[in-house]
Design goal:
The protein is built from 5 helices and 9 strands. It has a 5-stranded parallel β-sheet with strand order 4-3-7-8-9, with helices on both faces. Strands 1-2 form a two-stranded antiparallel sheet. It has a two-stranded antiparallel ribbon with strand order 5-6. The protein is globular. The chain starts with 12 loop residues before the first strand and ends with a strand.
Length: 177
């Protein structure tokens, strides 16, 4: 790991009016392009888990996969991809959720989690909390136990953290606007 701490927030690019007018998109691509930033993001996310044992990291398609799989490796846990409907080949369970700009759904394999599995829910961004809440519903419907929810970025003004109560929520980068 580099000796200096990387300013992760400085590696987030803002793109106005994407994917539609009025949305300020937080692009993590510059962070992914920076080897030190990427390493520190994964390390810091893993440190947020503390001493909590994690059996699986469940992450949302598509950007949640990027850090979610790396985080699972860092935690020596399995990785469960939550995909858009129709993308997984075996029996699935699904949950619908509202985005700040529309509706969507996620699915996981019905046999992905053993009853009582300790699960960390991960996504790149916490906005309204709809995606993460859907992931939490999927995990609990399969008998998993949520040990926390982790995010690279949190948009505090959208109140997503409150929608995830009573689960522990950690985020590395906070935007208040």
């Amino acid at each position: 790991m580099p000796e200096q701490t990387v300013d992760l927030r400085a590696l987030i690019r803002e793109i106005p009016d994407f994917p539609r007018p009025g949305i300020l998109f937080r692009d993590i691509t510059p962070l992914l392009l920076d080897p030190d930033g990427l390493e520190q993001a994964i390390t810091r996310l893993a440190e947020c888990v503390g001493e909590e044992r994690v059996d699986y990291v469940v992450a949302a398609e598509a950007r949640g996969f990027i850090l979610g799989a790396a985080l699972a490796r860092q935690l020596r846990a399995g990785f469960v991809p939550a995909r858009k409907p129709g993308k997984l080949p075996a029996d699935t369970v699904s949950a619908e959720y509202a985005l700040e700009y529309g509706l969507d759904a996620l699915e996981v394999h019905a046999d992905a989690l053993a009853d009582g599995a300790r699960v960390l829910v991960h996504d790149d961004l916490l906005a309204t909390g709809g995606t993460a809440r859907a992931l939490c519903e999927l995990v609990t419907s399969l008998g998993g136990r949520i040990v926390g929810c982790s995010f690279l970025i949190e948009l505090e003004a959208l109140g997503g953290r409150a929608r995830l109560e009573p689960h522990r929520v950690t985020s590395l980068i906070h935007f208040s606007e």
